[in-house]
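Encode chain A's predicted structure.
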Amino acid sequence: MPSLYSPRLVDRELDDLLRALPAIALEGPKGVGKTATAERRVRTVVRLDEPAKRQIAMADPALVLTEEPPVLLDEWQHVPPLWDAVRRAVDAGAAPGQFLLAGSAAPTTAPTHSGAGRIVSLRMRPLALAERDLGPTTVSLAALLAGTRPTVEGQTDVDLARYTHEILASGLPGLRALSGRTLRTQLDGYLARIVDRDFVEQGLAVRKPDALRRWMMAYAAATGTATSFEKIRRAANAGEEDAAARNTTTGYRDVLERLWILDPLPGWLPSRNPLARLAQAPRHHMADPALAARLLGVSEGALLRGDPAPFDSIRAACAPRDGTLLGQLFESLVTLSMRVYAQAAEARVHHLRTHDGRREVDLIVERDDRRIIAFEVKLSPLVDDRDVRHLHWLRAQLGDDMLDAAVITTGSHAYRRPDGIAVIPAALLTA
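Encoded structure for chain A:
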């Protein structure tokens, strides 16, 4: 067991579930910390990325489950029959907290049963800002979701340069101690493994690795936008003789989603108010904005200066919204963090965009009763009336169904404007 462990917001959720449920599946990309989190809660670890263990499990999945409980089945997707074996053990009366399954990909061969009602899936994402030891957090998403419009206050020393550093530093726990060339090399290796090994393990041989890398660059350039996949495909193919066909890029997307590398943010479709003409296309995000930044070859200094990026032509072809690449990546960092906080608060995160593009709200956090908080994300310490116009429009449409509204900024102080809209520095928000 690792001697050092940084607590995660998902820890409390996991412990609550383990006290009542016999089997939990931790899902998320490689390096996100699933194994380290799970190992602290089990007596036996079965590492199924080891050929010998995998061979035994393939021969007799039920035999693996007789190990001393609680049991962690690490990288279980290498032996898909284990899922059904765990399901049967649950049906037979397994005790709470008996099995943890950790997987860095969906299995290539689907289990015969979904596991619904027997195995509960729990998503793990890279570290949110509140998990990165940036200082005290003073604004709780759960408190905002209570609907009482609580006082918003607090101060942070985290500035634009530090947010830019955090974008590039990665939220993968094993990379947090690295910097400079070492960090860049590790991120390059992470991306190379996806192309060279993970696609093969998912049953899709990549005949043109350069075409896949260009598609991933184009997707990274579309971060924070709802650009169509066809525009991403065309941007990746521009001027290239070995252009990827539409069905090929659909395969790219499917595999990257199964690997949890793509983490698109769905459009919001309200079910209890009269809003209509909303677009359903997702906003594009990678699991960690550091991966997008590395694919685009940008440095901290270049982002802060607004220098042209090596792949600005691809970014332009993907038709991003007005703004800088740093603004897109900051929004992605805030979106990652908000999804971690919302999961802890049993809420869901979406974005809102009308079909004509005239109205957009960056983040919609929705409670189980479908009431929401609306957030805009701004790469600035200052907020003016123009920045909140879509929030006021949405409040006029939803009335009491809109519990609160806020702008997430790079500023130093949290407060409420005279119109009631909260202004919250990203580093001060937590679950």
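Residues 129-430 form one domain.
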